[in-house]
Design a protein that fits this description.
Strand order of the largest sheet: 1-2
Shape: globular
Radius of gyration: 19 Å
Order of helices and strands: EEHHHHHEEHHH
Largest sheet: 2 strands, antiparallel
Helix content: 55-70%
Number of strands: 4
Strand content: under 5%
Structural class: mainly alpha
Distance between the termini: 43 Å
Length: 262
């Protein structure tokens, strides 16, 4: 693959960073489109979007450092080199949710409605992020002999070179694209605020836990050396999602939207 897209002397444009940026703008565009349909201020979406991306970058990097501290103990400045890969989705997700809760309280807006508006955009943005992972070679899979295996040959790649691997980055990108399509179609059929968000969390947690079985990169383990930290979080959040979906349905909070096409 091509970790470095363009290089001018000592200045490099990293493909991973480019796709993370594209994912952010794609996610914000989707969220703003849904906000307009809901009669929700698109400017709030843009403001919260920037808060989310900063929180997500910090949270995802810190989480990666915590589960794989070795390289950072040897070279602390490596913490800042996010273009080399090393962003854990769940770390960023948790940090972004915390920031969104604070923002919603300060602006006196419904957190659950806001979360529903952002849910499809999160899935779409993640599609671009995983494509960036493929170019960088991070989040790589285990060795395999399947016809669709991918072999990295670029010495700058973060993945082992010359070995056929599961294209777990593409598995995740495709799964997120399908998740986006489902959420986008279902959004007009939801019956209470928070439903779309928790469906996203549940389905992503299930898919992520499955894809983790094919991952070959170091991700840290929870309790036993069979279940990764991200897999544990995915399973836990999927279970929590089921509880929250039942809870919110029982509460049956009416949606604040008055859009005629819902």
């Amino acid at each position: 693959m091509h970790p470095i897209l363009i290089q001018f002397g000592k200045v490099s444009l990293y493909t991973y960073g480019l796709f993370v940026a594209l994912g952010f703008f794609a996610g914000i565009t989707v969220a703003q489109k849904e906000a307009r349909r809901q009669g929700y201020d698109p400017n709030l979406v843009m403001d919260l979007g920037f808060i989310i991306i900063i929180s997500a970058l910090v949270g995802s990097r810190l989480f990666y450092v915590l589960v794989t501290p070795g390289p950072f103990l040897e070279d602390p400045l490596e913490v800042l080199r996010i273009w080399n890969g090393g962003l854990v989705f769940y770390g960023g997700f948790i940090a972004a949710i915390a920031a969104a809760v604070v923002y919603a309280k300060r602006k006196h807006i419904s957190f659950w409605l806001t979360a529903d508006i952002f849910a499809p955009g999160l899935a779409m943005g993640h599609v671009f992020g995983r494509i960036g992972c493929l170019f960088a070679g991070c989040c790589y899979g285990r060795t395999c002999d399947f016809p669709w295996a991918v072999t990295f040959n670029n010495p700058e790649s973060l993945a082992p070179t010359g070995v056929p691997l599961h294209p777990t980055q593409l598995y995740s990108a495709l799964a997120n694209l399908m998740l986006f399509a489902f959420l986008w179609l279902f959004r007009k059929k939801k019956t209470y605020d928070g439903q779309l968000f928790w469906l996203y969390v549940m389905l992503y947690g299930m898919v992520r836990s499955l894809i983790e079985l094919f991952r070959g990169d170091p991700r840290g383990y929870f309790l036993i050396e069979k279940i990764s930290v991200s897999q544990s979080i995915g399973i836990g959040l999927a279970l929590l999602s089921v509880i929250m979906l039942f809870y919110l349905k029982k509460q049956k909070n009416p949606s604040t939207s008055s859009s005629p096409d819902r």
